[in-house]
Amino acid sequence: MINATHYVLDLETMGKGPTAAIVAIGCVRVENLVITGSLYRRVRLESALQAGLHVDASTIEWWLQQDETARAEIFNPGGHTLEWALVDLAAFMGMNAGEQPSKKALLWGNGSSFDNVIVGNAFDACNIQRPWMFWNDRDLRTLLHLYPEAKALPFEGTKHHALDDAMHEAKQLLMALQLHQTLQVGALV
Q1: What one-character-per-residue DSSP string does 127-168 give?
Q2: What pLDDT, in 10s, does the model give residues 1-32?
């Protein structure tokens, strides 16, 4: 698993449930313990709503209390349609239209019931095949519980900006995997 291709996903949404409306997607690719690429797409809220995704008032209230820089990205009138952003995400993960999802790509979200679930439901709502296999869903929060040292990495960028969050989480993943690898080597000695 350490030398697998990992995708660290972070979403900014207008809800907390499994069909929350996505307003930004950040994803970072890690191959052989090296960050090799990133993707960031702002999503127009109206396109997420047209796909049947949902907002909730408490999340909108939460966004109104966040840093001005983070809010500016979310409430910016530009961006892509949800469908376009998901097609870009699938291509970034190595899957083009009509292809089968990668059996090797591991998709990491920060929490077992948030990022991966929401983006998976968005793919379904847009009738786009998910670019990863369900058995390759991974939970970064659980891994960081096992390797808490990785949680101590300093944050760079703007919190609640999907790409900055995904990059930070990718660095945490790298540190946790390296700690795990060190423990495995130590156990063999």
Answers
A1: T---SB-GGGEEEHHHHHHH-GGGGGSPP-S-TT-HHHHHHH
A2: 788 999 999 999 999 999 999 999 999 999 99
